[in-house]
Design a protein that fits this description.
12 helices; TIM Barrel; 253 residues; binds 2-phosphoglycolic acid; alpha/beta; 8 strands
Length: 253
């Protein structure tokens, strides 16, 4: 049984005051909810203050990126240990905005994934095709390349801890989500890739999320699919009410 995950990716939104007010409200809305891992991923500047508020609650902390080195002369970067230090348990890696605007490669994402796992951070590794690739029938080839890059870096003892988020780029922030059936096909395909590399036992443990215009209205459709284990939520995670409604729709009673 895989425990579902609902992770909120705040992206570059919310100053400290706004972050505090969002997470205080969220804490009340999701109080007592069990059976789903609730993760918030604020900007770096609010990690500490958010951690102070969610300590002892059912909300977990994640970051939106990190570097793979432990420390040193890497101006502007944040290390895996620094994320641990501030109380993160999760880290989003290889989000399409990072791949697109900051030219992160699948090899770099793999190095970051390895570094995260080595300090016991749970990586949420994002993969997904753009519209042109989808229309050109390249979706599976793109996903395969992004997923297989992980395999050379991650050994089977740690692979089961990875979370993958399948996020078709054309569905992110557009209000146009993938159909749940299409998302499930790709998510099954991702699980098969893990299965052929690490065996079915490990593949069955890996949690694979859908992301891209998830909202309180469409979350149940996704959760009703066989292989979708939760969601990475952008826009709707910026409001305590909508994010909590998504969490509630996912709760295993
Ligand atoms: P969205 O973003 O929910 O606003 O589409 C998802 C994401 O980028 O992770």
């Amino acid at each position: 049984m895989r425990i579902p995950v609902i992770a909120g990716n705040w992206k570059m939104n919310k100053n400290i005051v706004e972050a505090v007010s969002l997470v205080k409200e969220l804490k009340d809305f999701v109080r007592g909810i069990k059976g789903v891992d609730i993760v918030v991923c604020p900007p770096f500047t609010s990690l500490w203050v958010v951690k102070e508020i969610i300590n002892g609650t059912n909300i977990l902390l994640g970051a939106q990126n990190m570097y793979w080195e432990t420390k040193g002369a890497f101006t502007g970067e944040t290390s895996p240990l620094m994320l641990k230090d501030v109380g993160c348990e999760y880290v989003i890696l290889g989000h399409s905005e990072r791949r697109q605007y900051f030219k992160e490669t699948s090899e770099e994402v793999a190095k970051k994934t390895e570094a995260a796992l080595s300090v016991n951070l749970i990586p949420i590794v994002c993969v997904g095709e753009n519209l042109k690739e989808r229309e050109g029938g390249e979706t599976k080839a793109i996903i395969e390349q992004e997923i297989k890059a992980l395999f050379s870096k991650i050994d089977s003892t740690l692979a089961g801890r990875i979370i993958v988020a399948y996020e078709p780029i054309w569905a992110i922030g557009t209000g146009r989500s993938s159909s749940s059936q299409d998302a499930n096909i790709i998510i099954k395909f991702i699980r098969e890739l893990f299965s052929s590399e690490y065996g079915s036992k490990i593949a069955e443990r890996i949690r694979i999320l859908y992301g891209g215009s998830v909202n309180p209205q469409n979350i149940s459709e996704f959760m009703n699919e066989s292989d979708i284990d939760g969601a990475l939520v952008g826009g709707a995670s910026l409001y305590a009410l909508s994010f909590s409604q998504i969490v509630k729709a996912t709760e295993i009673l």
